[in-house]
Amino acid sequence: MIQLDLTPDEREIMTTVLKSYLSDLRMEIANTDRKAFRDMLKERKQVIRKVLDAIRLDAE
Questions:
Q1: How would you label 23-49 residue by residue, b for 16+ Cβ within 10 Å and e otherwise?
Q2: Torsion of Cα atoms, 32 then 34 then 37 then 39, to 10°
Q3: pLDDT on residue 8
Q4: 1 vs 54: CA distance, rounded Å
Q5: How far is CA 43 from CA 12, 13, 20, 29, 39, in A?
Q6: CA dist., res. 22 & res. 49, Å (int)
């Protein structure tokens, strides 16, 4: 497991970037016809959510 030491400003920026990417992924998943590609995007979405949860927990 990798541990990142982020300042509050870095944490805020990282959260904003990941949330934006997550939103883009949702749109791409909805617009994708190929099942294999959609499945890969869904896995990526789960990883992004996991990272966001870790960032939030680390901030507490």
A1: eebeeebeeeeeeeeeeebeeebeeee
A2: 90
A3: 93
A4: 12
A5: 24, 23, 17, 11, 6
A6: 8
What tens-digit pLDDT sequence spans the chain (60 residues)? Answer: 778 889 999 999 999 999 999 999 999 999 999 999 999 999 999 999 999 999 988 777
**Which residues does 38 contact at the CB level (< 8 Å), separation at least 6?**
29, 32
pTM given for the model: 0.84
Task: For helices 35-59 and 8-30, give the axis angle rounded to 10 degrees.
Answer: 160
What's the CA gap between 30 and 15, in Å, rounded? 23
Please give the structure tokens belonging to residue 36.
């294999």
